[in-house]
Amino acid sequence: MTTGNEFILFHKDYPVISVTLNEGYKINKVLKVHNESRVPTGLDIKGKLSHSELDDWLYDRAISDKRKDIDIILESNNVKSKRELIIKNNGLGLCDCYWIKKANDARLWKDVNYFENTFNEKGNNIYLGIYESKSKKQNIKFTPNNISSGNVPKMWIRKEDEIYLVKASEDSSRQEPYNEYIVSKYLDTIDVKHVEYNMVWINKRPCSICKNMLNSGEEILSAFYVSKLLKKDKKDSYLEHYIKCCKILGLKDTIRKELNNMILIDYITANTDRHWSNFAVIRNAETLKTKCLAPIFDNGAALFLKIPTREIKDANYKLLCQSFRRTQKENIKLVTDYSLLKHKKIESLLDIINDVYKSNDDIEDGRKNIIIKYIQQRMHTAVKRKKL
Ligand SMILES: Nc1ncnc2c1ncn2[C@@H]1O[C@H](COP(=O)(O)OP(=O)(O)OP(=O)(O)O)[C@@H](O)[C@H]1O
Ligand SMILES: [Mg+2]
Q: What does the pLDDT look like over 189-248, one tens digit per residue?
């Protein structure tokens, strides 16, 4: 093996793990762990860090294969595979402070990170699925848009000193950006900590826009990796297990109420997409001290997204869930603190849906009315549970 294949995973300027990559950019050997405390959260170092686990972690942070237009993105970056894309972009994103570089690369974090340095935004509309059909291919070099997970077309932009995430829709329904905006307005009204989403139109397509939720020097640990900190005790629910893992990171029992609120909100808003990368913890990347649970984000898949209008009635009774239990009906049974439902504006969601959907042509009146009807029903069911 030549040193040309030797790479080091860095956390800011701390060398963390030396590895070798094969020709397909897959990690095939862990050579050395330099700094145990900075090994990505949830990777097992006691049971000896496995190269395949590390490989999964590295490529999980990156642009999803399920993203629409992935072929155009690869072509525009002049690479043959997603793995090549990640390594050529040094794994640099805007959600954490990890990056990977060749062992002999002398660049420092301050020179390369996108939190402090500008990034090239030219041609980046392809990340939103927007391009002229004649000239699909762009010439793109180095962008955090290559290290951004999730399936919805999205891109980071910088306006003055702020960094924003713009998200379009995964399919032609165009409902996600409206949903992000509606749920964000609702959470604002009922005083629940959340990422604030607004709407913008790009090339006549509705998109949501939000600020990067991280302050300078912070990073996100997804619930998926946090939950790996402990082996789950069979008698614990997945909620209890997650709370135990968060406590290992130094968070207090008060997070229980925040997680109860998240379950209630997902129930009421019919959000079926709260998988374990859609909730998280925020920590300081220098001190490694955990700050808090991440504010609620990614509510695009609420309000019966992807369910045809005529199927909403039936789907409503058996709505799926990806967080702590398989169905929303079962998930809400984990709630022990229903105080959120006492908020005097808890029913404001119905007016917000009406107002936001009314002002656009993307959601027809028939669909809007059915959505409101069944969301109202969900709200009443939740309130009834509170009284049990
Ligand atoms: N405002 C933000 N600030 C910083 N990081 C963010 C922000 N919003 C999202 N992220 C990060 O980017 C990832 C992808 O974003 P998001 O979940 O909104 O996309 P998505 O495509 O809707 O995801 P999914 O596949 O779950 O539908 C999140 O898991 C999170 O780590
Ligand atoms: Mg997501």
A: 999 999 999 999 998 899 999 999 999 899 999 999 999 999 999 999 999 999 999 999
Domain boundaries, the chain: 1-60, 63-100+107-149, 218-386
Burial of 163 (C-beta count, 10 Å sphere; 0-12/13-18/19+): middle
Query: Rounded to whole angstroms, how far apart are CA atoms 138 and 131?
Result: 9
Which structure tokens are listed for 89?
């972009």
Distance in Å, CA 374 to ligand 2 centroid = 24
The alpha helices in the chain, defined as continuous H runs, are: 51-60, 70-76, 82-88, 109-112, 175-189, 223-226, 238-248, 255-269, 312-317, 328-331, 348-358, 365-386
Structure confidence by residue, pLDDT tens digits, 341-355:
999 999 999 999 999
Q: Could you tell me if the CB of 138 is within 6 A of ligand 1?
A: no
Q: 33-62 burial, b if ≥16 CB within 10 A, otherwise e?
A: bbeeebbbbbbeeeeebebebbbebbbebb
Rounded to 5°, angle at Cα 214 from 251 and 44:
55
Ligand 1 pocket test, candidate residues 278, 281, 306, most atoms within 8 A of CB: 278
Asked whether 212 lines ligand 1 (CB < 6 A), one says: yes
Backbone angles phi, psi at 29, to 5 degrees: -160, 140
pLDDT in tens, 150-190: 999 999 999 988 999 999 998 778 899 999 999 999 999 99
Topology of 218-386 in CATH?
Answer: 1.10.1070
Q: For residue 1, what pLDDT is reported?
A: 45
* Residue 137 predicted with pLDDT over 70: no
Give yes or no for residue 214 CB within 6 A of ligand 1.
yes
Distance CA 50, CA 40 (A): 13
* Cα radius of gyration rounded to whole Å, the chain: 22
Strands (E), 22-161: 27-33, 98-102, 154-159
**Which of 224, 297, 299 maximizes ligand 1 atoms within 8 Å of its Cβ, making it the mutation to test the pocket?**
297
Residues 6+ apart with CB under 8 A from 93: 61, 62, 114, 144, 147, 148
Q: Which pTM does this prediction carry?
A: 0.95
